[in-house]
């Protein structure tokens, strides 16, 4: 049972021209499933490869259970990694694929057999052991890849976009299975994805990465309800958060199409936290409400309505921006309606235009 701790870890490529990870700190606690999420190219895989020992950082330290492993080769770390493309050996049977790692470590035949059969049973692939990878479906191959990873009884379990090649339905099933597996193994696990919905549904905690840096690490609800930067607010949540670019003068917030006064208790700390007078207010689509014209903060017209089962998305233009509100599917609003828009202010977020959240 160990945790993993990255301190000031830096990895560059091409003689320092590409900064893949930029002095990151990350603590993966023993027994937790931490999801690393961010757009393509933000440094997720490089972070995983550094933890696995497949890349050597240019700076910083990596510790497992308090022992430094920064420069240890992969075979000397108790880490198992599952990749997007499964990376099964085509010329070996499922049994041989699963046994390979233990064999390389010099385990005896009996131990290997015991471990492989335990992992096969755990992943429910006991009847596939004599097959070759080409004789398996995508879902079965992924189970074998997971089985092969757990055979070694890893202290730290790394999963790099392991579900990307599966169809939507199978992905949903495998997400739950991976969560259950991780809880059963009771190990520290890092799961990488670029899909924020996958991250939100799986992680005990989520680390949001952007351009080689970790923007925020927190449980999913906190990431959603209390994003600490414009980037996190924008990246997490579907439909996306609405941003209103405003200015603050005294206690007055001005936007192209509305203005209102803030209480002193908000205006003062807000003014103190901003670099200038510009502020970006973020409001999630479910925190915008539809009312009669003249009754809300501003009036506009409904451009498009998109049904989503029990809810519907109402698209409207506010200034030169398209905004989205999410309302119950039975809300009395139609395309082309003139409406007023109200705001659930306690759930709004104030950001500096340069990124950070200004008011907690
Ligand atoms: P992600 O997994 O989030 O898509 P990566 O960790 O793969 O991101 O890549 C982060 C950055 O580092 C990207 O700009 C990528 O092009 C660069 N990079 C990754 N590996 C290498 C490499 N071996 N050589 C050069 N650049 C690399």
Automatic annotation (TrEMBL):
Keyword terms: ATP-binding, Nucleotide-binding, Transport
One Pfam family in the UniProt entry: OB_MalK
SUPFAM superfamilies: MOP-like, P-loop containing nucleoside triphosphate hydrolases
Record SMART domains: AAA (SM00382)
Residue ranges of every copy of the ABC transporter domain listed in the record: 4-236
EC number: 7.5.2.13
GO CC list: ATP-binding cassette (ABC) transporter complex, substrate-binding subunit-containing
Annotated InterPro entries: AAA+_ATPase, ABC_transporter-like_ATP-bd, ABC_transporter-like_CS, ABC_transpr_MalK-like, ABC_transpr_MalK/UgpC-like, Mo/tungstate-bd_C_term_dom, NA-bd_OB-fold, OB_MalK-like
Coiled coil: none
MF (Gene Ontology): ABC-type transporter activity; ATP binding; ATP hydrolysis activity
Catalytic activities: D-xylose(out) + ATP + H2O = D-xylose(in) + ADP + phosphate + H(+); L-arabinose(out) + ATP + H2O = L-arabinose(in) + ADP + phosphate + H(+)
Domain of life where this protein originates: Archaea
Its membrane topology: Peripheral membrane protein
Example GO biological process: carbohydrate transport
Compartments reported by the entry: Cell membrane
Subunit comment: The complex is composed of two ATP-binding proteins (XacJ and XacK), two transmembrane proteins (XacH and XacI) and a solute-binding protein (XacG).
PANTHER family, per database record: MALTODEXTRIN IMPORT ATP-BINDING PROTEIN MSMX (PTHR43875), OSMOPROTECTIVE COMPOUNDS UPTAKE ATP-BINDING PROTEIN GGTA (PTHR43875:SF1)
UniProt function note: Part of the ABC transporter complex XacGHIJK involved in the uptake of xylose and arabinose. Responsible for energy coupling to the transport system.
Family statement: Belongs to the ABC transporter superfamily. Carbohydrate uptake transporter-1 (CUT1) (TC 3.A.1.1) family.
Protein name: ABC-type D-xylose/L-arabinose transporter
